[in-house]
Write a structure and sequence with these properties.
Strand content: 5-15%
Low-confidence stretches: none
Structural class: alpha+beta
Oligomer: single chain
Length: 174
């Protein structure tokens, strides 16, 4: 067992510890099921809704994909029929403005969905790295310092932030 510094709070902890006992920073890769916000944004960049599907928001991803598809179809159909109607220049100008408005609306929708999927992926990543069912109130066996430890560290080795000695967090009795 080697002692390392926590990247978050610089507390000295065991290299075998799953997380820093002082600040709760996850030291080993327990977030393997977490999805990358960058990948989610790239997928949403390609087609709105794909990033949501990637991070597991199936219903939201399908809904966003359908809305995005409908906006693209409306713009395409409007451009196709606008030219075939042989409208006077004044009315054609109004149709053009409506088309530009729809294009602008689509771009705003697309940008908002990029931001939304990034924020959702970040929230899911944080949630998967800190899924506690409770806090254990324990005492260091060496110095009797009172400690509040996330229950996910039960049975793991940690280090007292007060006396700096290693100890095992007691397992939860069920």
């Amino acid at each position: 067992m080697a002692l390392i510094k926590c990247p978050e709070c610089n507390n000295v902890v065991s290299s075998n510890a799953a997380a820093c006992i002082k600040c709760g920073f996850v030291l080993n890769n327990q977030t393997a099921n977490a999805k990358s916000p960058g990948v989610a944004v790239v997928l949403n960049f390609i087609w709105s809704g794909l990033g949501n599907l990637y991070i597991g928001q199936i219903g939201k991803g399908i809904f966003i994909s359908i809305v995005y598809f409908l906006l693209i179809v409306i713009i395409g159909v409007g451009a196709e029929f606008g030219e075939k109607l042989n409208l006077p220049s004044q009315q054609m100008l109004m149709v053009s403005y409506a088309g530009f408005g729809l294009i602008g609306l689509t771009l705003i929708f697309w940008i908002c969905m990029l931001i939304s999927v990034y924020n959702d992926a970040v929230k899911l990543t944080k949630r998967s790295s800190s899924s506690d069912v409770g806090i254990l109130s324990i005492h260091c066996p060496h110095c009797r310092q009172s400690l509040d430890v996330p229950s996910r560290y039960a049975g793991q080795t940690g280090q007292c932030p007060d006396c700096m000695k290693a100890f095992t967090v007691p397992k939860i009795q069920t």
